[in-house]
Fold each of these.
Amino acid sequence: MDAFLPLIPFLPLIGFAINGLFGARLSKTAVGIIGSGVLLVSFLLSVACFNQVAASGAIQHTMYNFFTIDSMRVDFGFLVDQLSVWMMLIVTGVGFLIHVYSIGYMHDDEGFWKFFAYLNLFIFSMLLLVMGDNLLMLFFGWEGVGLCSYLLIGFWYTNKEYGKAARKAFIMNRIGDLGLLLGIFLIFKTFGSLNFTDIFSRLPEMRLDPAAVTLICLLLFVGAMGKSAQLPLYTWLPDAMAGPTPVSALIHAATMVTAGVYLVARCNPLYSLSPDALHVVAFVGMVTSIFAAIIGLRQNDIKKVLAYSTVSQLGLMFIGLGMGAYASAMFHVTTHAFFKALLFLAAGSIIHGMGGEQDIRNMGGLRKAMPVTFWVFLIGTFAISGFPLLSGFFSKDEILALTYAHGGVWWWGFAGFGALLTVIYMSRLLYVTFFGEFRGTEEQKHHLHESPAVMTVPLVILAILSVLGGLLNTPHFMHLGTPQWLASWFGPVIPAADMHLPESTEWSLMTFTTSLALVIIAGLYFVYTRRGNLPVADEAQTGLTRVVANKFYVDEIYDFLFVKPVEIGSRLLHYADTLFVDGIVTGVAKGVERLGAQFRKLQNGNIEYYLIGMVAGAVLLLLSLFV
Amino acid sequence: MTALLIIFATAIFVLFAGLTKNRSWLQPLALTGCGLALGVTLFELLGAGPGGWNHMYADMFEFTDYALAFSAVALVSALLIIGLSGYGFRSLHDTLGDNYGLILFSLCGALCMFSFTNLTMLFLGIEILSIPLYVLAGSRRNDLSGNEAALKYFLMGAFTTGILLFGMALVYGATASFDIHSIASAISDGRHSAGMLHTGIILILIGLGFKVSAVPFHFWAPDVYTGSPNLITAFMATVVKTAGFAAFYRLFSVGFAPAIDFWSIPVAGMAALTMTVANLTAIFQTDFKRMIAYSSISHAGYLLLAILACDVPGSEGALLFYSLTYSVATILAFGAYMTIAEPNDDGSFEAFNGMSKKQPLLAAVLAISMLSLAGIPPTAGFFGKYFLFTAAFAKYPWLIVLAVINSAVSIYYYFKIIIAMYFTREENDYAVVTSPGIRWVVVLGLLLIAFLTIVPGSVYALI
Amino acid sequence: MEPSGYMPIVLQSLVALGFVALVLIVVPLLGPRRKSDKKNENFECGIEGQGNARMPVSIKYLMTAILFVLFDVEVIFFYPYAVNFREMGFNGFFAVLMFVGVFLLGFYYVLRKGAFEWDR
């Protein structure tokens, strides 16, 4: 197996090379087959890896020595243990499905071959990220995925806004990377090595300054915040929806954005030494989770809703990490990869069928025209909402239960609030899109069609996974399948979280949140379909007078009790977002610009000034004689 | 030394060959000379050793692995630049031989600067390097901005030469020697007068700071880089910078090493200032060459970190690796830039609009070199920065934080080019005129970058 | 060398400076002073001065001048050799031969480049 290990990341690289160099001359079919074929092989190899890891433990494979500085040896090497092989399966498996889907989705795009080349390059970088046996390899992949994300967000560059979104994503990510890089430097200084195995094996015998560990953890977490779109570095993710929908599914939902979670889970021995850092992680996750969910309530762009939902779900994962429930967070990463990829791809199918329309106000009643898409979207929505026995139910509940066990009732309450908001906006999305009557133009109505099989088959597979994914890690008290299978699988890498709740408490927590979620799902069904109410906001546009009229039918009580306060809160947060978060970012940029303009004046072309400047500098340097 | 002799002989030969009617073999001649010199240098570096040259010439030279490795870097840069010259010099006729000759003479100066053991040799090397450049900067005789560049460069260069020489005199006065090893032992023995020595070191610092364009002695660089012919700018940004830093490092890590506590303060200040000022100013540039000028200044800021960390093992390798990746990326960028800017007489960023469609290869090369200059993995530039920053991190964490922030800022302006080439809707009707020579150079350069990316350790471990 | 060893040099310099100063001071005092327009002119004899001295000069003059200086300075290197040529033996001879060779090459180059052609 060892000999084949490098093939897993390098096959996608080869696919990138072939498609990138000759793609323009190949037929679309050939490009698609090469692009997804390499991934299928990678996936099968990953499965083989999985079997080997299951049989004989972690595999460490060194390809060659990258470089040696003094006593520090950095290898181009892979560490395939229980954690990374799991990520490899997700990346290659979900990645393969999305590749296949893209064959249909991107079929009419002139940059078809470029798209597949970029996607393959992304998979390569992502695999380096999860497979690398040292922090430098991880950083390598980390930046590589950032770069691919940049290329893919700006893929439809004819729209100038998209290019801006791409750059915003890249720069936001770089702010995070700054922290990560500094964290890596600090780790090197502290441990004298970058190799995960070395670092974690030296950890017990080293008497470390707790402040230093906390600093390292926080710096790494800054990196994770950037990549996983946590407050305040999250604004790039909703903008990143400018990219083609498969990209949103693959990069901005299923894989890349979970890299931050992976990083923290990978470094869990470090984080476990620093309760302060874990608190910060949990707090940031909590705030992000609620904040993003509230914003999601008012979005009308189908992809934007899903984007905010992703940010919110990532927040939930960080809450889990912050509670020390690393395995649960990874579990949620897995189920989230299934159902969020599913939701995005289904959204892509809708957009495809609607001829590029993304505004849910112009949809409605798609249930009949797109039955497959409807059913899978329904499954996805139920899965993310925590409908009993679907995948999201188990993973979300596990995080919530652990939050209750470790953080107490308040943490649990807030985390649960975020989760319920998710239920609200997701069911709203479902009902508005698929129920009621069609609200688009005649032309759109005519165009409306179910997507081809190449798109729906991956959707169905993902739907099945979304249904069954939860069985990977069922709670002990339910006696369903192998309880806590995933947690015990991660056991060698991630110590099991301490769940010290009585079964009855767990049962009641679960029942409480689940029944609330069910009530909301059912209630909203009546709100949005039975009464014909539409969530159209005050900024309703012309041509939608019918919609505007319907606004007055919105259920009064619902409005008074829930929508209004939330709307106000949402609007406030939206302002806070534009004023505060964006304000700081742009403010910094403006400040930098002003400063630069001052420096620019120095260079005025007059040699006299230059000489004076030099002499002044010389005098300044000579002053150091007296220091 | 063999390389130096070969280059010198080639230079004279080319100079005379330039007098004949048939000038088509000047470039192959220069290339052969450089290639031969590179081959000999690599042979000496990897196996044979420098031979008996070490102690000739009254111990003026010392051909350590350090000197040989840096010679190889300079020769690689020169090879690539001369490879581009078929294009860059295509409008020159009468003075073609002179141009090649001057480039090669300048290269001789650089080679002296890698191997000196004596301050006089350092001074001679700097002058041999600089004087041909003053001429080359103004080699387009009818071009006003070229003349301005040459005059500015000359005046300011002469100004700092005086300062440098005075510094050397003071150091001699303080330690009674020009030999860097004797200077070091005189300093560590305490046989020196501190005031005179420190003043001398500061003055030398100013002189070398000018050569490597460190703030506040950088004022010449943007104007001179912009005004000079493209090829010469590429030469200045790469070979001259490499030579300047290699000499800087050698002098300060050998000769002035015992006084590191004194000079590290001003050097650290210079490094911080250089990175920040250059990056902030670069954001505003709209002209490619000016942007590259500021970028080259900012890289000087990063490279100063190697000098600060000169007592850390591995800093030499970091300097070497960084110089090589920086040089190759810069030359590639110039190669791609010339093809669009020269035929259309427009060096602004807008000139690159839609280049990815016109010339996919050149656009990709330019994009990769920009990524490498910005230090983004997986390009080789990342390792350069990584090596430098790790070397200096233990001693100057605050400076590294600043450097990392600055390299994040630099993405902003490097990406402007990439955005123009790939993500811009408005396109121009500019023609892109290439030549086989350019294509060869970019492919070779790309291979080199790929090699440096895949096995960074190989170059790093050379010295 | 001890600083006191420089004393003779210092003395000699003082005497030299003193003599110059003495002459400069004493001579004007000794002679009578008669001023007239004629005497204040630039030239006492020859053709009368015309126009401004700052006029553009053909580059050819400068070229010749600078080449003269160049080769003149190089000739100075012969003096140390002339003093030591016996001690330096054949090694020295070949070194100087090489020097002259390079020097002649330069001269040939300048010639071929047409630096001395006045009518071009």
Note: Chain B has one domain: 2-460.
Amino acid sequence: MATKVQSPAPQAAPGANTATLSNEEILRYSRHLIMPEVGMDGQLKLKNSKVLLIGTGGLGAPLGLYLAAAGVGRLGLVDFDVVDVTNLQRQVTFGSSDVGKSKAQSARARLSSLNPDIQIETFETRLTSDNALELFKDFDIVVDGTDNFPTRYLVNDACILLGKPNVYGSIFRFEGQVTVFGMPGGPCYRCLYPEPPPPGLVPSCAEGGVLGVLPGIVGSIQAMETIKLILKSGDSLVGRLLLFDALGMKFRELKLRKNPNCPVCGSHPTITKLIDYYQFCGIRGEEAEAPDLKVPEMLPTELKARLDKGDDIFILDVREPHEYQICNLKGKLIPLGELPRRVHELDSSREIVAHCRSGKRSAEAVDFLKKAGFRKIHNLTGGILAWSDQVDPSVPKY
Amino acid sequence: MPVKVIIPTPLRVYAGKRDSTEVTAANVGEALGQLTTQFGDLKKHLFTEDGKLRSFVNVYVNDEDIRYLSKEATPTKDGDTISIVPSIAGGRI
């Protein structure tokens, strides 16, 4: 069980009063207060609201910043991760000096400096079926800013079991989806997608990536929906799935219906307590990174020694062309997706070593080629990443 | 009857990088059939081995989910837009 770190209650007197606003708060929130849609009533609703953010990353960054700035009285931040340098391209709560530090703590420091009047609690733990209900129960609204299917189904089910709204956002490359689940009479995530994709069928991390501004926009929409739920004003996205295509700069909206037979929010639910979500999503262990395929492997050091010796080895790079531009081992580039129709370009009589970034896609390529009759074929263990670590540090990791 | 099919970002790599295409079809099943004939790599991402639409891929005619219409038999008419909307998980991916 991971440790749960709870921040001390704020000592500042103004924030502790939930019935009125101090003069400082009136000035701080004056642009809200002069709007009839918010006003004093609305600002006090915000001050008395309790919002839990699951994830402080790409979506969590604008969420945390805007909800703190807006004066949401109590913000919970759940994240077990530490800030990595590759996060900074989009996770704008963090600065370079936060690299290596706790995301939850770094976000807390940033949000506290933005608004010292609010209470921020950090939970440096992985959200699990064992702790989700306990974590959620003290909050009014849960905002899902996670990055994986098991946690999304867990957040959904926990919200339904506790009757809490779940402000949902997800992103892929330059496309986003936003909606609000878990409202009375409204649909839930399982109504939209009863099951997750099996691992391996969704484009992998290496084909993924995300344009840094996209989570900024999608997370901001989630923040707006959260504030509207608190104010009980406007038309929320309940029952509507908002699709955002940043490249075409198009917003579209689809109808989202409650499934009467939904296993968790339907009239006869079959899921009445939290389950094992990794198993549900077909993922064993915590990460789906390790290749499941058993294929012949070759270590980077061995490949280097063989090449230095002058052995005839054909290097097959199964990454995408834009990855080849970042760095390469001078291999022939045939992206994994094109391999089946370009297999004739390979000479099965030669010894082939296939590689990708981490060794996962190339394991699939080796598996495919073995089935296609190739005998002298190996997977470069650990891919470019391992090559950079073990053989040539001048090759950049990405 | 020309019907526009919008291909979502995660599947564009299997559809010649296109964001949409036009097909001529009287219903959703025909439209998806033509789509997967045009782009063979899409097939396993949309359908299970026994030819059923995958449960993490939703299909809409205009803004309606075909699960609440007539599923793949949902008729299409001139100018309709079919959207394929798979589940995406990302924040980080």
Note: The longest helix of chain B spans residues 28-38.
